[in-house]
């Protein structure tokens, strides 16, 4: 049997920067799968796009059979990740020969440190290639407990740790485990793109609390308190932040903790995946280390960012045993345990010294140099507002002064989406529009690339911005 989609396939000959239709073509989705003999045709795709398909066998003259292809309302409520979509789009352009500079993905350009890579290779040679316990090996969970005690000041036992296939899985399982239909998940904006969608997957309601660039995108405790009620179940905090690079000072976290303590149902998910990528004098504080917050907090961390291990897919959750056990139950019925090889590599990563030792410190130094270069460069552009990122490897820049401007051969820049498309087409730089993160005034730039590449990108961006005809003087 054969499944066919009528969408046209992509052709490399369409991709050149002078052809806007090629970019529109790439933005469309083309899906196909193959097995012999079945052809799907919509009975009424315009009025009923996701209801049923007419199925006809190629080897039969029988009447067509209508197949219901309606999707779950839960799935239909979820938006696809824009960062993933743009990264894939930029990769397709590069493969088609267009020299796009990819500054969309949050992926370090460094290789995994050799001691970690060697541990993975040795794991294969030594036969550590079988299933591990669902929660992770005792060796790795014990190492994580030691790390959290020594570096974060929070104490856990191995049965309060769940190792997963990346921090992203850990977050989703935590949301699914603690939220019920009708519960509210409180999310400061700008936010990582997946937080609201994960809330929707749990049939919970995302409640967005805006922050402002003038306050470095840090949550105002009074604004937070005004959003809380009996349905508030989970507050998600990310420090250092994706997408803003903001770091919550301990004093502000203490104010937030005092508010959390007044709401018996409210838990906190503390996403600390960027904790080691932080620039002095900023310091990282784990929310669970604050008085009275250990019982309330689900701490998520992993290995992808600081240790340049994105492809190893390894993260973890730490928290009270009954919450972690519930997450483990979900994991046992979905992916089961993480890769045995990756877990051996994770043990080696945690053995490199506090905060990853000198190897990670060298990477963080490079990130800081790149951040400083970009801040200086964008400060030379009129009308661009810049916050003070103290961690991670992102800039979240306010370009709203340029909205309403016109670009020859492109049209009007009316928001972050069109600005990002303009910069992709005219500057050959892939960025992420801020509307994906809940703030349409901004665009996100990842500086997880080398300085020479960033310099080239800045030259292209400045040239493209100079071509805009501004609606008013700025």
From TrEMBL:
**Domain Aminotransferase class I/classII large: from-to ranges:** 99-448
Q: Which Pfam families match?
A: Aminotran_1_2
- What is its pathway? Amino-acid biosynthesis; L-phenylalanine biosynthesis; L-arogenate from prephenate (L-Glu route): step 1/1; Amino-acid biosynthesis; L-phenylalanine biosynthesis; L-arogenate from prephenate (L-Asp route): step 1/1
The transmembrane residues are none
List, alphabetically, the InterPro entries matched. Aminotransferase_I/II_large, AspAT/PAT-like, NHTrfase_class1_PyrdxlP-BS, PyrdxlP-dep_Trfase, PyrdxlP-dep_Trfase_major, PyrdxlP-dep_Trfase_small
Q: Which PROSITE patterns match?
A: AA_TRANSFER_CLASS_1 (PS00105)
Which BP terms in the Gene Ontology apply to this protein? aromatic amino acid family biosynthetic process, prephenate pathway
What does the UniProt keyword field contain?
Aminotransferase, Pyridoxal phosphate, Transferase
What terms describe the molecular function in GO for this protein?
A: aspartate-prephenate aminotransferase activity; glutamate-prephenate aminotransferase activity; L-aspartate:2-oxoglutarate aminotransferase activity; pyridoxal phosphate binding
Cofactor(s) recorded for this entry are: pyridoxal 5'-phosphate
Family, similarity comment? Belongs to the class-I pyridoxal-phosphate-dependent aminotransferase family.
Q: Please give the PANTHER family that the UniProt record associates with this protein.
A: ASPARTATE AMINOTRANSFERASE
What is the name of the protein in this document?
Bifunctional aspartate aminotransferase and glutamate/aspartate-prephenate aminotransferase
Q: Which organism is it from?
A: Beta vulgaris subsp. vulgaris (Beet)
